[in-house]
Fold these 4 entries.
Entry 1:
Amino acid sequence: MAELGEPPVVSVSNLAKSFGPTRAIVDATLQVLPGEVHAIVGENGSGKSTLVKILSGVHQPGAGSLEVAGSPVRFFPTPRAAQAAGIATVFQEVLTVDTRSVLDNIWIGLESVSNRVRAAEKRRRASAVLAELLEHPPALDDEVGDLSLSERQACSIARSLIREPKLLILDEATSALDFSTRSRLFGMVRRRAAEGASTILITHRMDEIDEIGDRITVMRSGSTVGTLALGEWNPGILVQMMTGAAEQAAREGREPVASADSPVVLEARELALRPGARPFGLSLRAGEVVGVAGLEGHGQDVFLKALAGLEPVAGEVERVDGSARQAVRSHRGASRLGIAYVPRERRAESIFEWMSIVENFAIATSSEDRRGPFLSERRSSTRFAEYLDLLKIKIGRGGDAITTLSGGNQQKVTIARWLASHPRILILNDPTRGIDVNAKRDLYTLLDVLAKEGLAVVMLSTEVDEHLELMDRVLVFREGELAAELSRAELTRERLVASFFGGQEAGSDPTGTATTGTTSTGTERQAS
Amino acid sequence: MTELRTATPGPGPASDPAGGPRTGAPTSGGRGGGGARARSFWETLAATQARFPVAQVALLFVTFAVGAIAIEGFGSYNSVRNMLVLASLVGLTAVGQTLVVLVGGLDLSVSGFIVAGALTVTQLAEMYGWNFGTALLVAIVGAGLLGAFTGWLCNRLNIQPLIVTLAMSAIAVGVVQVQTGGAQSGSAPAWLSQLSAPVATTFGIPMPPVVFLWLAVGVLMWLFLSRTRTGRQIYATGTNPRAADLALIRTRRIWTGVFAFSAISAVLAGVVLAGFAGSVDGSLGGPYLFQSLAAVIVGGTVFGGPGDYWRTMIGAILLVFLGTVILGLGFTIPDRQVMYGAIILLAMAAYGREKKLSSRI
């Protein structure tokens, strides 16, 4: 906990920063006390990232003052200068050199000719940090490219921790982490706090702040609107401060629209996501919203890709339409059968960066815009207009580059791209990752509307709250197997999280037994 | 609080207009400095530059002005016409290269296919008694197959086009030279020479047909890239191959097609060059490989896009103007080589920076 009396580790006041006409920060003031975990919350575009990038020496502010340990100093001209002052930052993007070893990645940038660390010492310290951060740490000589996303992010966090910074900044750095690594990281943050080191935590996840935050600073439209101490906040207050609007009504869960009479649109049989895994089945009905949950890397991703024809797995996926059945064998085939897949990594897998908003929307369905040999830009725009209202997409002009939009709006355009193919089944791979609260709300509303129109939705989410609020049922994966299936009635936070770990209270286990894997392989099971 | 430190001269951000769509926090690191006003000027310029090659066109006019003042006869009709003919030749060799660069590749086989094309329609046609049309067809089909294989291979095995195209270039020239027994002289039919002879006229207009041919190619390429589905898919494939795959674009076909197109367009350019040069030997293609790439880069087409063929056209004219001025001022051809190299480096550096800016705005 923070000790009063000592000067703040870092204190910025009246900070301002513009990028051309865009005012990223209007007026920001922030004090980080020794030994505190200071959360910064705000919607996307509210200036959180810019603020920490200034503290990390990435950006130079237009105005403002900086104090480190009570004495005024110049803003850090380079990231190296910030590091020298004891500030280490982990960003949301996983920044690793994939072709180098774990050890190299952890020590990268720390060594110089004048400052060599002995190899044995490097290995000792790196494995100490990794052992604290990861339950099953990879070997130091493993190539980072072979690790999972979560492990790679753990490596870049380890890179910061090994510097033993006075101030650690986690800028959305936890979103790529799996549950156990995140818990272990928070354990380390708490230990550091006890030793007097501070942490700035930027996250969209309220539960994380509740878990370890000592104070919260809320940002809105480039300004800090207030700092709350432990016990002064609740979700209602925070949302109100972030949006500036009156408190939103507590959300009820969605009303389910699908029933046992709704037609089955997709059926999977004898799916085994990895060799030797216990196979399972699924049947999906029109109007159903099905959640896919579990710890990172436990087969959820493979499952979605199998449904979308992107990843060959043992077993069969069939599109059902009345009495007609057709096997899904390829992504293209899946698409033709009305299965649309929205990928997980927006930037790497969805966005064509310098192309326009409308081009980004129309790219997968451009055959509809053909007029003779040419494409009709107007027809693309007309088609896009249908989705502007539905998805509440806020754009300037459709001809602007997609990158002029916030992450949330980019994601909406991506979803519109796939809705435009008029799918009967929509597969969403963690669509709300890293987007702001309002954009999330818009997506939830959209899913409700789509379900009412008879679309079947399968959605992977890493947020427990999302499952509680949205899903008709949730499939929980563990070690490449379907570990539990929770119906709406059984869905509680405790049950869901417990089922991630295979707890006994995991509700109705799909096999009717405890989840300890007593069933023999080959057991066929039909969901609902 | 202590001193209010302003990194910027001028009124500071508080006086900035707050207009414009609200964007997400900028993602890439950029350097600060420069006043708020000055910066917005530079950013406006960068944004304009992204839509239209302002710098290149400005340089074009400056170069022409310098040439017209310093070199006697530079501004005359004949001189301009000759330069346009040279620019057409450079531009025609850069048609395929533009597409290859747009999908994120690089085609070093342009020179090989130029020579192969030129030799086929001159020597092979003579040796086997083919008429011109047959020879051309053979060259096009052969080049198309080799080029398609190049593109397919690069995409399938995920290897650098740099090396594959270099190898393919050697194969293309080799295959033709085996046929001709290594004898390296051939002469183009007279009508072909008339296509690009500076004194030739086009329907009475005192400008050789090759310039109009180039213009027509330019219009077709513009329509193709900006108005057709395949053009859009080429851009998408270059920008983000993975997203393109997921968006159901057949990226391997795009690569195969683009490299086949590049080989065929090089062969056709080789035929035109054969007419221009009169006689053909193995060194015909060399200079054009470099100039075609330079025209693409200088015009402002970036690896993986954005870019356009009309930018390459401006690049080609600019290169020829600059080259002529340099020679006219008494420098040598090696000096010009140095200058071409420097321009490419400069252009690459400028786009590197521009890309950063555009992701910041």
Note: Chain B touches chain A through 56 residues (CB under 8 Å).
Entry 2:
Amino acid sequence: MESTAKDNPFLSFFQFIGKKTLYIINNLGAIAIFFTLAFLKIFRPKQFREIVQQVFYIGARSSNIVILVGLFTGMVLGLQLFYTLNTFGSEGVLGSVVAFTLIRELGPVLTAIMITARAGSAMTAEIGILRISEQIDALYTMRIDPLQYLISPRIAAAIISFPLLTAFFDLVGIFGGYVTGVLLLGVDKGAYFYRIHAYVQMADISGGFIKSLVFAGLVSTICCYQGYFAHLLTDSHGAKSVNLATTAAVVYSCVMILVSDYVVTSFLM
Amino acid sequence: MKKYSLETVVGIFVVAGLLCVAYMTVKLGKVSLIGDEYYSLHARFASVSGLRVGNLIEIGGIEVGRVERLSIDQEDQMSVVELKIRKGIKVYDDASASIRTAGLIGDKFVKIEPGSTGELLKPGGIIAETTSPMDLDELIGKYAFGDIKKDDIKESK
């Protein structure tokens, strides 16, 4: 069969596509199984302490950077939208536009990308080093389930932290819009908050939180998966493979955040 | 940072986060925690063109509730609007409701003249006197074709 494929350019073309497709589907299946197993092991006993530890690293330690980014995102939104809306003479709706943009779209997405950069990369590197220094194998020999001990608390902590950090981001961003729109550019304060209150509906807010939960699952799974199987990379080994795994985890996470953002939005609309 | 234990930091983080979530859902999302602080009235219009669920209800320019549901009464071919109005706002049975537009191209809202002389409307009551929204398209069409009369404007008002 190999020989016929080599002889015939047509067949080798299809063989190439088939090989790639099988590779991708295999990987997706492995990630799905990885996530399901780790997720179910969250509910095993004695997980609480580990989860608190991870919420500290993923959530509490990330809140400073998320608040900073949220503030400046809100401020620049206030500035840009003010000048755009000013050409239509409708800067009164600034509040609702800023709030909608943040709650529906920018809040979940930018929070997820910031946490990927801050905590996701650290997750991959840490687990990758545990793998290449054979400490995960050591856990096996001590009859400790590495999936339950290392991965499940991280996924649980991500699911707890992402929505909370998104809420920080949204509120701080709305305040940032207030700083530029109302304090610097002179939009009416009452109009700014009234419009937010009048136009933002529960569906917008719950949509934003659904997004952040989806991102939490994606980011934590991709980052843990890349680190956990860093030793299986074919083109490198040792420290180099941790390097490649971390890069791949951050890139895949960011791409998947943006792709799934579109998919989830089209389902929610 | 070093003064606090890990648990304390996580506790502060989670509580602050939950407060933000609660603020967003209760204040911005208008989810009422304390059950029924609203009662509903119905109003029947010939047309509710442009009105949507969630539009404001005003009495004397002050927001008193929101449009809860829009439906059609198949028997009379009338549009029925369910209005959710804050408790404590009194509407009498000689009240009238009209659909207005905020500004020229703004959102529609329901304006209620609460009346004064009749009996108090109970939850589920019907506001009998209604005025449908002025159809701007139709008016412009009439103006363009030149058969607009003073009466038309008065009627649709």
Note: The mean pLDDT of chain B is 79.
Entry 3:
Amino acid sequence: MNRLFSSILTGLVVLITAYPFAWMFLSSFKTNREIYQPGKMLPESFDPFAYKLLFSGELFDFSSVLVRSLLLAGGQAFFACLVTAATGFALAKGRFRGKSLLFWAALLIILYPKQAMSLALFEWMARLEITGNLYGLMLSGVASGLGVIFFTQVFRKVPDELIDLAKVEGQGPLFCFFTLLPLIFPALCTYGILHFFLCWQEHLLPLLTLGSVQLTLPLALAKLGDSSYNTPEAVGLAAGVLAMLPLLLLFCYFFRRVRSALADWVVS
Amino acid sequence: MPNKRAGRLWDNSGSFLLLISPFLLAWAFFWVVPLFTGVDLAMQESHQFSGPVSGTGYTHSPFSNFERAINDPKFIHSLENTSLFIVGSILITLGLSFFLAVSVYELNKKIQGICLFFLLIPSFALPGSLATLFYLFFHGKSGALNQFLVIPLGFDPINWMMDPSWILPCLVLQAVWRWTGVITLVLYCGIRAIPHWQFEVARIEGASAWSKVRTILFPGTRHLLLFAGIFLLVDGVAAFSGAYNLLGGSGGVLDAGLLFVTYAYQVAFPGGSGRFDLPLASAACVLVAGTTACFAWLLLQVRKHMRN
């Protein structure tokens, strides 16, 4: 394609996708009157009243919402990494019965839309009486099919010589798996971030199980958007900015690693 | 999954079973059991018909909830909306991402990373903030869509959320906005993986841009396009948060923006029409999710076939 045309097309789309977020950040300092003029970019004054209102606890305890979301997404991503990496290792390097069954199970988890399972999962958790429990919710997302498939491909690329070495040394698969973990650190980061993203944005299941007292970020945002609360628009935008921040920072830090891990995955 | 190097695999079933046991436990406990709970729930008699209401000619059979779902015009309507939503977002997202990936690939190396990063920004936002942002920035008479697109083209400003024919396109637009960056990144990596000599040959032969797309770029990325399509399909069936924030849990004017998960949520829980009819919602979920999984599996088989 013509290089000029490519540059213009890319520039235009980048502008359309990213510009509203700059507007969102600046508008979190604006009054409603200013916000209702979307053509306007800069606020009249940088008054962080919306952030102050959020953290003052007048609406709801926003800092604990933030902590809860971080705990939920971080914990779930950590355990999902560990659990699915172990399964991926077994699938890539081991011989045992029911291997293909395990692979299909993982695939099925991906293909069966998770939200459609939420109602049944809620019913099941209610029978177990663990609704309202953050740790129950955390564990419910640990069995990730995407993780299993991803780590199977990652461990397939680990040279068999390393496994042979472990065998010669008289180590078992369990020990071998834990010694290999530093080697696949970029892949662990990549999947960890991805899982963190997905869990961070999960809306329906927390809505059903945690109820109206223990909010996570998506629920808090929906609450702020609800017109019956009558909060200034800037507060919702400020909450949106704060919700984006952890993901943005994580991604900035790991961008190269994620890209190279993704490029590896695309080839396999 | 067949493994070519089966001879070199490690024989130590006991330890490997120990390694996979956490996954198996979590899978059984939070996936298999809920799946059967869902099916079980779908076969139970709804509270709507128990008590004094029963005996009005309604007899319960294990499949009557499924029948009721299929005969519910709202369910069918939500399916129509969801299908349109999925088809629209898949076509636009894949097309746009493909051309963006090609365009970014043609750019200077240093700018490539920056462009990809900026394109990814919408996927960091919660779907809820996308909805809020959409509502405040794009929507409305003085919103960006009307100011920069509709009015300059000489049309009357559109009332996006109140006009039933525009609600669904708004939701599609949000999905496109959210996913284009991610899919562009995947396709970009796919293009980078195409052997460089193919482009050299095309350059020497003086191939046109179109024939380059047709003979190199498309065949080199079509398995990824299909993969992205499957991902968007499964995600589209499950779409909830954006519509929930934009329409407050309702289906919008004339239910024009009623997506499937919102329907199930409405049937199961109060708010909106709130029917507390968990069995009916469960039956609808089992039907739709089962069909989606089968369809996606078929597509995966196509992908496998394509790669061999």
Note: The beta strands of chain A are 94-95.
Entry 4:
Amino acid sequence: MRVVPFFICAVITIALIVLFNIQLPVGSSKTPRLGFFLSPQTGFWQNAEDVSKRYDANIQSAGLRGYTEVYLDSNLIPHIYADNDADAYFAQGYLHAKFRLWQMEFQTYAAGGRLSEIMGDSASGKNFLAIDKFFRRMGMVYAAENSLKVIESDPSYKAALDAYTAGVNSYINSLSEKNYPLEYKLLNYAPEPWTNMKTALFLKFMAYDLAGYEQDFEMTNARNYFTQLQFNKLFPYGQDSLEPIIPKGTAFAPPAITPKPPADADSLYFHFNDSVGVPLKPIVPNKNNGSNNWAVAGSKTASGSPILCNDPHLGLNLPSLWFEVQISTPEYNVYGVSFPGSPSVIIGFNDSCAWGVTNASRDVKDYYEVHFKDSTMREYWYNGKWQPTTFRKEVIKIKGKPDAIENIAMTVWGPVMYDHSYGDKMHDNKYYAIKWSAHAGSNEGKTFMLLDRAKNYNDYVNAISFFQTPGQNFAFASKKGNIAISQQGAFPAKWKRQGQFIMEGNNDEYAWQGTVPRNENVIMLNPARGFVSSANQYPYDTSYPYYMGGSYEMYRGFILNRRLRAMQNITVDDMMHLQNYNYNVFAEMARPVLLKNMDETKLNSIEKKYFDIYKSWNLSSDADAPGASIFVTWWDSLMQCMYRDEFSRTTLPMPNVEHSTLLEGLLKDTAYEFADDITTPQKETVSDEVMKAFKKIMPVIQHAEEKDSLAWGKFKDGGVKHLLGIPALSDLHINAGGGVHILNAFYKDHGPSWRMIVELTDETNAYGIYPGGQSGNPGSPYYDNMVDDWATGKYRRLQILPKNHFSTQNTKGKITFTHS
Amino acid sequence: MKFIVALLFTALFGYFLPLFLPWWSFVIASFIVAVFIHQKPWKAFLAGFIALLLLWGIYAVVLDNPNQHILSTKVAQILPFNGSYMALIITTAIIGGLLSGMAALTGSYLKEGKV
């Protein structure tokens, strides 16, 4: 034995193995374990699917009762045929896991404040520990636990969810390391068993995404900073051009609850411009999370049958939020999109009816200032005495580091989200508890389970009654000819502007005074105008007896109703055009204001050129329209010119002023007070600001034109991003039209996450598409195969098919499920 | 002849061991084969190297071709290969070969005497 070379070589070999078996730091992130990752036997090569792969399989499980057949059609959409409900949900869970496991789990890690566990406390410039703390302190896990209790006390839904969970776990248990989805190999962790709690967490994540938006701290700062007159101009309640979901003039029944502000509200709550504010920057969901839905009655369609349309606007991600599926049992057939992570079809149609949802956008998340006896937070003052606090211990595991522990004080209001131990140091040393309707236990999943089986209007009304948070506008249409819409949710009965600012928490005076009774969530059924619609606008006009705090989009609803009123003999084709309609009615309303205030003689030749492009723009935000880019940039610039001087006098975070607020302000007030730049001695007029705003955007516009990206599609630069933000796994730079305030709401990485049109003729005539693909595997041709068609406004036929439709030729696989 | 036999056995056991043991367990095969089929160190290294170079390289190609390079092109962007699937295949093969060759070299030094 040659000792020296032997040992040298042995050490090098072992060192190499170790080197290739650990995650190496690169910048602020880490590589996969390179040897494992590159090994064709275990690593990513195993995820490189044969493009002509068939997915045939026979699954056996002790949990199954009957026989289930699943046919995967040419787009990998499963058509599930089960003997009974539980087996159908088992199969759905199995298929969700088979095609979307990583995403399902990752979403629940995010919802439950566990990202640090897999990502480390920070990576690639993202502070995951801060995100986790935010979700924990907001009470996400607390909320999901409360919902789980409700779910588990409902035998029929529990049975469905148990079967679903068993299906997911049946797939997870069949995996070995080499079969793990790619992202597990990239991040170096393993799937864990699915639980009903994870489904509850996922649904709470949707509640956060859709009913988690508020600006209470910013609004409080604004209240302290502006006079009441200024504040009401900047943050008005209601909008002049508003077309609410339930039309203006609808008479509301006398309210069952008459919420009253506390007697001291004028001095203590509505105290404008007099105190120190709260420096904080909370994480907020995308405020553009919204949607369109509408249904037209047979009286307006060519076929004489109703047509229902829905396109929910959400973050556009790969793998997609949605997974298409048909579920058939002896009792019912349903087709539509489901959430990987939850049983049932969420948006879709069955043999009798169709439904779709948009976000209610009501403010159901408020903050109360809590007064603790001392910094131990063991007792707080409430209704005239010291109340004991309970503490919720939240343990955040961190990859490669010791756990972080959050001890969250729980009060009558809810968790104390902001205290001395958390977040930005508050200059005011105060404690704020969060009260959020999503903290209440609820069973939104039951709504979908019942909608999937709904046969008529009454079934729809019953199904949506279970829905609490996030409040949604449920549109409905049936083959019997009914159309309906209702904003459904558990909405606190609030007095005007209640909860827009931080509230006093030392007694119950500022508490929510009950929940708006269900029958006061107005249902519109078969209106004479022949259509129902919603697009995230106010549900009612401001004569509604309860305060509808929140952030509302107005223009999409306005153009949608204008078009629907004008249309007759509507066909499915017309509806496809409407969902992809790029006309910008906000720009239409803004144009006279801009033109009136522009003095062309003061423009140089370059400015004139771009102004002419704007003037000749046809107001349609199409991909090839440079005028749209100029308008959007100009308007943003005008917002800056109008408000920045007022807002920049404080360093506190301030709320955003809505586009509609500026436009409506300018339309009714030619001497708009915010036009004056308060940092200059002279008095600027609206015209000065409009001109200044236009001149300011010239460098950006010129630069864009030099780079051949002034056309709107390239200028806005939309795309569909992988959930981890990895560019190679994303579909970026999609050249397409649409945008904010536009029916085709595609803007950057946000927009119509599913487009569906259902004509309720005897044989249902339905179409749909989503920007993604059925497979979550970046190594599959079905990962993003529908993105291009989606971007160009194409659709696929959606059909509830009989089992015998399928053969080996027209499928990508047949999976059977039997009792073992 | 010895070289070819060593190479074949290394590849064969190097394929089977990781089916039950961690990804790197092929080095055990490379080491043991080099101990029992004794060759000059440089020859042992080469046999081990080429065995895994071919095993990993061919296996990667076999998985990559029917995939039409969909995934390898993406991974070659995540790792710094500028989207070149070929560079990724070659790197994969070389890493397998290098580990195997070093293990074989170690094995060849274990046995004393001339070849």
Note: The two ends of chain B are 14 Å apart (CA to CA).
